[in-house]
Design a protein that fits this description.
With 301 residues, the protein is α+β, with helices and mostly antiparallel strands. It has ten helices and eleven strands.
Amino acid sequence: MTRKKQPPFVEVRVPATTTNLGPGFDTLGLALDLWNTVRFTLEGSGVNLTIRGEGSGALPEGEENLIWQAFTRLYAEAGAAPPSGVRITCKNGIPPGSGLGSSAAAVVSGLLGANALLGMRFPLQSVFSLAARLEGHPDNAAAALFGGLVIVGGEQVRRVAIPPWTVVYVLPAVRFSTRQARAALPAQVSLEAAAGSIGRALLVVEALRSGDLPLLREAMQDVLHQPYRLPHLPGMEAALEAARNLGGAAALSGAGPGMVVFCRRGQSRAIAEAVQAAFRAAGVESRAWTLRDSAQGAIVA
């Protein structure tokens, strides 16, 4: 019996990411152990994209999908025509529109899938630069590609080794797009606010590096973006306070609408329940995850 030859494929796994971490606006990112898996198979004609898991039935499954757009963009950067037929199968663990870097995960998946099929023509730094341009900001893309805790300044990315952390993530049933979140920000901030945020962002890195939860709880207080976004997120202010009252270090996850809480391992359930109760009191339902940070970034197989 002759076995049918399987078409060539590439599989890419990309972690969720939480950014800002309070005061580190567009400069700090952390990979989390929650993943999207995307398989690219060369077969058929045109693009055939299917989604299972988070975003199924809501995310586009054609050429307007971010994965396909990033995939074809890398081929264009290489001066090559994309394959005549590609089947893209997505298994999503990252909820879209959540503040967990779902769009960055899609962009990184498409770029890495294309790069693998092109024989790894571009180094990872070039992939990062293109992902940051497509995203419009670099923090999620950096954490998704390189894993762990990252500090981003322009084209420069530095990873900081940290001990394992337990992270509670809570997603309220509120729509708040990145575009809305950016529009809520002031055009200018005071020199005092900017200087204070720089100091607290440095302390966030030190607290995560040293495992100092009390320091992290204080350092994650923000004045640059959270005060302007909280009025658009019913129940969020009370939810953040509920987490802090139980000893957690809490902040919006990226631009929201989700929030992250760093805590001791045994605190996660109580904190998740308290945060969800705060949202319910404001008439908002929510979902909660208990996660770990991920030292591993995107994987190509």
